[in-house]
Structures
1.
Amino acid sequence: MSDKTIVTLEKIVALCKRRGFVFPSAEIYSGLNGVYDFGPMGTLLKQNIKKLWLKNVKSFDEEVVLLDGSILGAPQVWTASGHVENFSDPMVDCLNCKKRFRADEFDLTKGCPFCSKKELTDVRQFKLMFETQVGAMADQTSIAYLRPETAQSIFINFKNVYSTTRVKFPFGIAQIGKAFRNEITPKQFLFRMREFEQMELEFFCKPEQTDKYFDIWVQRRKDFYISLGLTPEKIRLRPHEKDELSHYSKGCKDVEYNFPFGWKELEGIANRVDFDLSQHTKHSGKDLSVFDQETQQSFMPNVVECSVGVERLFLTLLFDAYHEDVVENETRISLKLNPKVAPITCAVLPLTKKVAESAENVYLDLKKAGYNVQYDLSGSIGKRYRRQDEVGTPVCFTFDFDSIEDQKVTARNRDTLQQERIPVDQLKNYLDNLLKE
Ligand code: ATP
């Protein structure tokens, strides 16, 4: 078995299509740019990502509670947050080749990055929020926005959550949900989409604690990615330069991953100070400060935000796990995903149809116990192993003629290809060990 991995975006896109991870949305109508549907494997992978993220952010000493805010947002929210005014990207068109692109991604003094002609329009600000109308009357008063981030639902509900849960400072509010951005150029597959899911934690603390918790969360977030199995050498932290900082932020660090197309942001961690709660206090007229019993004074909570896209992490995990090696003179593709992340934890494979019934009972038993398990009877055993390798299944249990006699199956490891006999009544233990942290 010799490793000869060269991973490219094209290979990942093809694998995602072939194995039911990701399909272009409305593909039978030639698709919708920047929008994707997730197939059976992709849905399971997304579920695991979200479950692990939530488990992680809730695993520390401080309390973290949940919120599920609406996607449609009142315009006042997005005016107060600064998005109506500031949430745009600089856009430029080439009058020669008609390409449209982000002006901040290229050196415009060299002309068009696609055809080199110096026939570019002026740079215009392109609004990234999707605007829609609510109700039967379509006028200025019926405007609503699809949220471009989940964070604002948390800020506008801060007082509701604080007063109904009696949480103590510092504490977090976590949310996983859809966000929409009319990106000028959606690209690199799941990296930059127009509809995506965010996992955001807004961590509220007293102003004097903000710098400390910013550092703490930066380290926790980096550790999380390593715990998922991402290659540590491909992860780095990059502080934002002063001129890069968003309008709301006092300091920001990105967790970056070394993608085949370069080091790029995987997650942003921002010190938002009291920007959001102060803005909503000002615009709504409702005081969002809290009273501190200890000091007998009111204060405006500060916020440390950790924000990552589910699909961006999905893509990162696939890039990191993708392997090609040569087994018996054939190229074998496998996803070396951490078992906790892998969409399927194990497959049960009867060696022949003659043992299918007994093998199916093993499968049903594991399925009913709640494991993500697949049963596959079609094709040679080699082909069935390959299919499981490509979706990252860490172990296959093969049921053969001896299994009927000795009630053992052969467990075949995805990464080492080693095989061992395991008693059927030990399979759940075996899987639990595999899924342990
Ligand atoms: P960029 O500078 O790349 O446009 P951003 O800094 O505006 O991104 P944030 O607002 O910090 O992005 O978003 C937080 C996280 O949400 C990002 O780190 C990324 O994981 C995810 N994300 C943002 N935009 C997209 C998108 N268009 N498609 C997929 N994921 C996204």
2.
Amino acid sequence: MNNQINQELFFNLSYSDLEKTIATWNEPSFRVQQIWQGVYQKFWNEPDQFSSLPKLFREKLFTYFKFSSLSPIKVISSQDKETQKTLFSLEDNYAIEAVLMKYDQRRTLCISTQAGCAMGCVFCATGQMGFKRHLQSGEIIEQVLYYARELAKSEEKVTNIVLMGMGEPFHNYDATLKAIDLLNDQRGFGLGARRFTISTVGLVPMIRKFADEDRQINLAISLHATTNEERSSLIPINKKYSIEQIMEAVRYYVEKTNRRVTFEWALIAGKNDSESTARQLAHLLRGILCHVNVIPLNPTSQSIYQPSSKEQTKLFQQILEQFGIPCTIRIRRGIDIQAGCGQLAVKMTDPSTMI
Ligand code: SAH
Ligand code: SF4
């Protein structure tokens, strides 16, 4: 049915949108639940799979709606098979990527919210691509359904979703929150709000807006520096929203939600990994319900920065913990498949480095 024009992507619909459509088609309302469960619990996306629906109705459904807008164009697995990355082409040919990480019983997806990113962080491959466009909520959801379908083959399920792929989720706030709400819907996919983590570069008005919504979704802030001078040199948007403004917004968030915030810290050798920086960070975070997630930098082709050594990483963690700030070191999983933010899509769009 791809020759149909103006077909709406099904995953952009909420349950009540579907109810309205089914009502205007004069179909019985129980069809809504049938379709919703087919899509979000069985991950069907082809007409034949909906065999319990009358044939004509099925055809109408697939004429009005499309159930696929992402084409997987490359799938790569890490050597240990624990990390898998898929590069998708969107209908307008922009590329995005999503990553599945298997760790113990967890099946965590890292998904994208935008094609490219407008924030231009100097250490980030996506940032170096520039901004292409926002993803629709349905395109965000489709990444999840793709992996849910893959995992279902071995009777596994998605257990966690982090919005840490390409793009800045709070720059595409409404579509991101709508996608989470739909995936959270108990009548369908039903993944609990606490299983989601939104990571933001620190868009202050959106952190406050998010706090006001009083949701159970986890929040992570990409901090990476303790002074505005340093942070602005890595993260240009810091010139607009300073560290002080971010910390104030985070305090507001914790006060409103009573939820622990994660601070992300990409450790860059000789840049933000010294013992004195660790002490400054501990000082900055004093009294905030939080923990720090340090991750040795994933080097990208466009930037000169290199990851900190194992020893320096450990030392950084120890200092934070001495000051009572819980700190975990995120293992750099899937380094052999360029599982870092946006690295595969960059390769695909740069002919000189095509793999
Ligand atoms: N735009 C959001 C979410 C996507 S980036 C944000 O910036 O938070 C997800 C995380 O990957 C962020 O913490 C970001 O700082 C980090 N990141 C980006 N490039 C990286 C790299 N080369 N090495 C390590 N972490 C990186
Ligand atoms: Fe965008 Fe996040 Fe990359 Fe910065 S780190 S450029 S905000 S995706």
